Structure formats: C-alpha cells, structure tokens
C-alpha cells in the first residue's frame, strides 16, 4: 500500500517512465480515488502525464500518421486532453478543441493512470468496459506502440 503524499511531493521532472510505473503499481484503486478528490493534485498529475507524452512519443512508429486523439478522464470533474499526431510530431493540449477526433478514449482516473503507466492491459480494460472507445478502434489498439510506456 502506498501513501498519496508520495505522489504529492514527487518532482515529476526527475521521474523516469519506469519509476512512474512502479509508483502507480503501488496504489490501490481506493488510494487513486482519494487522490482524485484532491483537485489540485489531480490536475498536477494529469498535467505532468500529458506533458510527458510529447517526449515519450516514438515518431518512427507513427510514420505519416495524422490523427487527433481525445482523452476524457472522468473524476470529480472531467478533464479533457487532446493529442495531435501529424507526420512524426506529437503535440498535446488541455481542453476540447473544435477538431474532429479520430478516436476518443474515456476512462476514470484509476484506469487512466494504470493505462499510461503500463500497469493496465488496454484490451482487458476495453473488454470489461473500463475503457470506452469512440471512433477508430484500430488506432486506439495501436497507441501503446506510439509511446515509450514501460511494461507492468
């Protein structure tokens, strides 16, 4: 069992994806739900995770892919981020744009952290309806190869 103060005091700039994987693995669903109730900490964690997507992006795996991916993270308040992949580049923005996403991924905080840390199986999450996908399921199924995500 972990202490959410570990996450609150964490300097994300010095945490590798593998360390993040190990940290998230320690948290129970209840602990992550408690973290979600702290609006400032939740916002910081989401901002840090999405902020790293650009640096963890694998352009060689994306090739000429062009897609807008919308992430809807459900919690005390819903958060929306978008990842735009365009010819080997990845940019992330907070909030819903006017763009038409090729795929939208919808999940709660717990499932999101498990997914992005490499501790959750996206196929299992989808099959058990913990991860909802609207749009291009093929693109959604290939997202893990586009980012440097440690294996749980």
From TrEMBL:
Q: Name one GO cellular component term.
A: cytosol
Q: Cross-referenced PANTHER family, in alphabetical order?
A: SCP2 STEROL-BINDING DOMAIN-CONTAINING PROTEIN 1 (PTHR10094:SF25), STEROL CARRIER PROTEIN 2 SCP-2 FAMILY PROTEIN (PTHR10094)
Residue ranges annotated for the SCP2 domain, each copy included: 60-148
Instruction: Report the protein name in the record.
Output: Acyl-CoA synthase
Database matches in InterPro entries: SCP2_sterol-bd_dom, SCP2_sterol-bd_dom_sf
Instruction: Tell me which Pfam families the record gives.
Output: SCP2
Q: Which domain of life is it from?
A: Bacteria
């Amino acid at each position: 069992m972990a202490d959410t103060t570990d996450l609150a005091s964490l300097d994300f700039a010095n945490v590798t994806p593998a360390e993040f994987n190990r940290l998230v693995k320690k948290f129970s669903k209840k602990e992550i739900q408690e973290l979600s109730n702290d609006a400032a900490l939740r916002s910081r964690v989401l901002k840090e995770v999405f902020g790293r997507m650009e640096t963890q992006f694998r352009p060689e795996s994306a090739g000429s892919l062009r897609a807008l991916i919308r992430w809807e993270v459900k919690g005390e308040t819903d958060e929306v981020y978008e990842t735009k992949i365009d010819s080997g580049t990845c940019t992330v923005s907070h909030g819903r744009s006017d763009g038409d996403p090729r795929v939208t991924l919808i999940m709660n905080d717990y499932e999101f952290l498990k997914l992005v840390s490499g501790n959750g199986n996206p196929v299992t999450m989808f099959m058990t309806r913990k991860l909802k996908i609207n749009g291009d399921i093929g693109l959604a199924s290939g997202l893990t190869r586009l980012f440097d995500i440690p294996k749980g």
